[in-house]
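Researcher: Please generate the 3D structure of the following complex. Treat every line as part of one assembly.
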Amino acid sequence: MTTSEAPAKPKLTIDGQAVEFQPGDTIMKAAERARMDGTIPRFCYHPGLPVAGTCRMCTVEVEKAPKLMTACSTPAADGMVVLTQSDRVRKSRSGVMEFLLANHPLDCPVCDQAGECSLQDYNYEYGPSKSHFVEDKRVWKEATTKRLSDKLTLNMNRCIHCERCVRFTEDVTKTHELLMDNRAWRKELTTALDEGLFNDYQGNVADICPVGAITFNDFRFHKRVWFLKEKTGICDGCAKGCSIYADEEKDTVYRYRARFNKDVNDHWICDEGRVSFHTYQQADRIVQPLLTAGSTLNATSWETLVPWFTNELKKARRVLILIGTDASSEEAATIAQVLPSFSSADFVVRSWNGTGDGVRTSADDAPLDHLLRRRDQTSNTRGIEGLGIKPWNEAQDQNFDLAIYFRSGRATLPPSMAAKEIAWGVFSLAEAQRFAAVLPGLSTLEKFGTYTNCDQITQSFETVVKGLGGSASVRKILDGMKLKSNTPVREVAGDTI
Amino acid sequence: MTKIVTHKEGALDKYYIPALIVGLKVTLKQFYKTLFLGQSTTINYPEERREYSQRFRGEHFISVDPQKTENCTACYLCQTVCPADCITIVAGERPEDANPYGVKKEKRPVSFDIDALRCCFCGFCEEACPKDAIKLSRNYELATLNRETAVYDLDHLKREVKGRG
Amino acid sequence: MTLFDWSALALKILFVLGISFGMVPQLVWFERRGAAWMQARVGPNRVGIFGLMQPLADVIKLLSKESFIPAAASRFYYQLAPAISAIAPVAAMAAIPFGSFLIIGEHKVPLQIAQLDMGILAVLAFAGLEVYPIMLAGWASNNKYSMLGALRGSSQMVSYEIALGLALVSMLLIYGTLDLNTMVSYQDQSLLGFLPRWGVFLNPLACLIFLIAIFAETNRLPFDLPEGESELVAGYHLEYGAGKFALFFFAEYVAMMMASALYITIFFGGYALIPGTGWILNLFSTMLSPDMFQNLLALAQVASFIFKVGCMMFFFVWVRWTLPRFRYDQLMHLGWKLLFPIALVNLMAVALIIAWIGV
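Model: Done. Output below.
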C-alpha cells in the first residue's frame, strides 16, 4: 500500500483544532498525542494504568452529547468536536474540586507533595474559591501516619480515592497488595496482608499518587520539592538502564523519579534503583587521592599521585587493566587505548562484573521479574563487550606485576590479581584497603557518557551534579599524566585492544 | 511645580559675621537648655530603655503549645521566603509520644537554625508562617561574644517569650 | 642669682606647667561635655563624678597602648615632631605674665617666668615654631594623607601669621612697648570714665582679626583643615598613636591656652582685675599691711587671669561646635583677600591717628 492510497486518518476537533488519532484512542489519548492534554485535568487517569473513570475531573463537553463525557474513557470518534474549557466543563470541574476538598485536610505546609500536587494545581485553576461545607472534616485517627511497608507511609486524610495505587499493584506489579475497604466517605486504603506491600516497585506508588497521601520514606520530609532542580539521567543500578529524573539541590541528589521511556522502563523504576544514588553520597566514599605509605593509605594530592602512577606504569613489565562493566563506554575505550601508551609494558585489558552471584558477561544476565529488574547489577556490560574487551579469566590471566582496577561503584571487588593493585574510580574506604593507591573517579551522576543496556539500547546521559571533593574524570587524569610524563607518548593503534 | 528659591548674598553674608553670631546664639541657647533645664535627648541606656513599638522586629522565637511542643511543622516556607537565606531547617518525623494532637503535627523540625548575623529582620518568615510558629520578639539586645551563639538553635528559639517580649 | 631666685623660678615654672598640664584634661572634658550640651546630649558621664575622670582614663589608655613607628617612617623626625609640638606652646607661656608681683620678705617676685623686655616677640617666636611639628609629622609619617594635612597646615599658619602680625603691630603702636607687663599696666586704666582701657575697646577691628588668626594658628574649627576627617582621615597625626598622639593632643590644648593668654594680655587687660571687682579688694586695704595687700592683689590678679583664660577657652569650644569647617579656598580667600587688607588698612589708620593725636 502506498501512502497516496492510505485512507485519511480519523480526526476530531479539540478546542477548535483538528487532531488526528488512531482508531481505539480515547479522547485523552488523542489529546496526549497532539500534546493538548494540558487543558484536561485528571486524578485517576494515568497513562501507565488502566482507565478507571472514577474521579470525573477530566470531563469534557462533546458536541451533540447530552452530558459531559470523561475524556479518559470516551473513545474518540471521527468528526467529534470536543471542548475542554467551556463554562459547563469548568463548572463541573469546580464542583468536583469542591467535593474533593470537602474532606481534604489542606495541610499543604506539612505535606511533602506540596509544590508538585495535582490537587493544588487544579484547585488553583478550577477550584471554587470557597467551600459550602461547614462540617468537620473526616479524620482517620489510625491512618494519619500509617506504614504501608518499610518504604511507604500513608496519610489517609489526604487521600482522594483515585485508586491509582490499587490499580498499580493489580495491573503493573500484579501483586494485589492494596485495596480499598468500605465505601463512600468511609472508603479507606488498606493492605491486603498485615505485612503491607512487598513488591519491588513501591516507590512508583508514591510517584503516581496525585496528592501527598502516599509518600516514599526515603524522601519523606527530606526536602521541599520546590528547592529541587529536575535533571534527567539514567539509573545505573542494573543492566536495564532506566530513564530517571534525578532531583538535586546544591549538588546533592535527593531522589530519583521514573522518567517515561517507552523502550526501556515505561513509567516505572524499581525501588533498588530509586535509592541507588545514596551509594555515591555516602560518607565513606573516597573523594581524595590516596597513596599507600607503609601499610596504610594516606591522603595525597593529584600532583603527587599522577607522577607516581605514571612511574609505576613505566616500572611494570606486565600490566592488567581490569575495567568494571559499570564504566561508561567512553571511559573504557579511553583507558584501554591511552593507558598503554605510557609504558612499554605488556598490557592486558579485561572486564569484570561480579554482581548478581557472579555475572561475567551479558549471557549470564536474566530478568528477575516480569518488569524491569535484572540479575546483572552493572549498567554497561553490553557496552564493554561491544568494545571487544573480554571478561577476566582467573585461570588464564595471571602473572601480572601491576593491576589497575577501574570501576564506577557498581561492579564488585575482584579477587587479588597482582602484587600491586591500583584502584581507580568510585570506592569506599573499606573496599580500598588492599590497594596501593586510589584515584578517585566520578560516579554516573557526576559524569556524562554512554551506557548500552541489556536490550542493546545505547543511551547517553548528562552530568547531574559536580564531582565530589577531589574526584576527577578519566580524561582529566590522563591529560595530567601526559603533561607530567617526560617521554613522548607512544602511539597506540585503536585496534590493539 | 517646582519653585526655585534663590538666596542673594548680601554684604553682611559675605563677611560671615552676622551669620556667625546667629549660629553662636543657637548653640548657646541649646547649651543653656541642656545644662540647666536638662532638655537632653540622650537615653542613659542600661538604666533607661527606649520603649519600642509593638510591631518592632527583634530576636526570633518559636511559639510553643502548653506541652512545650513547638508549633513549627517544618514546612520550609520561612526558609523559602527568607531573602537573606539565614534559616536552615532539617525536618523529621515527630515521635508518636511527643504528638499531643495526634493528627495535627506529624512533621517537626529536627533542627531549626537562624543565623542572626545574616538575618535582616524583614519579618517575611513571620508573615509566611502558616502556623504562627516563628515570630520576632521585641528584644533588640542581640550582641553576643562569638559567632556561634549568634546562630539560634531550636532550644534557644523555643524559649519563653511573653506577648512579643 | 640667689638661691631664693632659683627656687622662686622653679616654683613659677612648676606653677605654669602644672596649670597648663593640669588644665588639659579638664579642657578635654569640657570640650566633650560642652559639645554634648550644645547638641542636646549628655556626653561622657560615667567615669568619676560628672565623668571628670574620663580624660584621665583616656590618658591612661593612650599611655599604655603600644607605641609603634610605621616601617616606612623617618624614625628621627617622626619622633621629634610630637616633642616639638608639646614644647613650643609651653615655652611661649614662659614669657606671658600671669600676675604683677609678690612680696616675700624683702624680695619682689614677679609672676612671670621670664621677664623679657621684648616678651611679645619671644611669644611670637615660640608660637611660630608650631608650624614645624606639623610639617615634620606630615613628612616623616610617609603617608599621603599626613603629607596633605601638613601642607595645608603649614600654608594656613603662614598665611594667617601675616594678618596676626599686622593686627599685633597696630596694638604695639598704641601701647608703644614690647613688654607685656607694660601693656597690662597700660590697660589697667579707665577709658572715658566707665570702660577699662582694654585693647578691645581701643582697636576692636584688630581684636577681631587677631581672634580669627589665632583660631587658624591653633588649627581649631572652623579652620581645622590639616586634620579634616572627611578627606584626610586624621591629617598630619594620622600615623601617630599611643603616647605620641597624646602629645599632639596635649599640645593642641596647650597652644589654645597660650593663644588665649596672649590674646587677653593684649586685648583684655591681661592679669588686670576684672572691672567691678576692685572694691572687694579695697575692703581689705585697711586691714592688711601694704606688702600683704600687694600679695593679695597679685593672687586676685592670678585668679582673674585664669578666669579670663577660662572664658576664652569656653569661646574656643563654643565656636568649635557652632561652625562647620571652611573649604580650603574659602580659608585662603578669607586670609589673604579679607583679613590681610583689612589689617593693613587698620594699621595705617591707627598709625595716622596716633601720629595725629600723638598718644
